[in-house]
Design brief:
Vanadium-containing Chloroperoxidase, domain 1, 2 domains, three-stranded antiparallel beta sheet, 11 helices
């Protein structure tokens, strides 16, 4: 019975192909369960009910780690709303708002772009301009860090300080997205750890730069201190996973030839 069904399927498919050839749809290629008519500049699917491909996330497409590796389901929660820790968080944001200078806000604004040069331009150990290979490497790492932080943000959905209190006036603007953990803190932490491993003697310099980039998000009024600390923790966890990825280790090692 199965053999007869198989033969019938083959005959049916051949008949369909013959009809398509007669209609002038040349050349025709069979792929899976859909037929494609190859046109000079396009490929059109002749089975409209075929399911659309699954969306590919940036971590699996552009980064080093799979989507499963970028999930941290046991990541610690932020302070509970209204708790003593939460109130201390808000008090710290308001204190920075009171004490910050225009220069500090300008420095924070200059690091709005989540990039290697934005965070480490002043202590950049690579040749200038940044070699394209190094730039591509840090963009791949940024893709992983961005997906990892967004994963945790969606779990807890903590609102930003200026949403929680009308007293907060962010000098970085009223940014979209959730607050916990800080994506900037996550990315800058991973970048700092990479640089520290490449140049251990300058590690303290790189980590100070990473910490300042993270603190600037609190100074700017778009994150709580606990968001920043969580971002650093996530960065540590993410870097540990990256160090177990052969492609990452190989690409990181290749960066040595671009150091000054």
């Amino acid at each position: 019975m199965q053999h007869r069904q198989s033969n019938f399927t083959v005959i049916l498919r051949k008949s369909i192909i013959a009809l398509m050839l007669a209609a002038g749809l040349l050349p025709v290629v069979y792929a899976g369960e859909a037929f494609y008519a190859l046109q000079p500049q396009a490929v059109s699917i002749l089975v409209p009910e075929a399911p659309a491909p699954m969306e590919v996330k940036s971590g699996s497409a552009a980064g080093y780690l799979s989507q499963a590796e970028l999930q941290f389901p046991g990541f610690p929660a932020p302070p509970a709303a209204g708790s003593a820790e939460d109130k201390a968080d808000m008090a710290a944001v308001l204190q920075w708002q009171k004490d910050r200078t225009d220069a500090q806000c300008s420095a924070a604004m200059a690091q709005s772009d989540e990039s290697f040069i934005s965070f480490f331009g002043s202590v950049n150990p690579f040749k200038n301009p940044l070699p394209s290979e190094a730039g591509a490497f840090f963009k791949r790492v940024d893709a992983d860090a961005g997906d990892a932080s967004r994963y945790v943000k969606k779990i807890y959905s903590r609102e930003r300080p200026f949403v929680a209190s009308s007293e907060v006036d962010p000098c970085l603007g009223r940014l979209q997205g959730f607050s916990y953990p800080s994506g900037h803190a996550t990315v800058s932490r991973v970048f700092g750890l990479i640089l520290s491993d490449l140049l251990p003697r300058q590690g303290a310099i790189f980590m100070r730069a990473a910490d300042q980039a993270a603190l600037n998000r609190v100074i700017g009024g778009v994150h709580y201190p606990s968001d920043v600390e969580a971002g650093k923790k996530l960065g540590d966890m993410l870097y540990k996973k990256l160090r177990q990825n052969p492609a990452f280790v190989s690409d990181m090692g290749a960066l040595s030839k671009y150091l000054r």
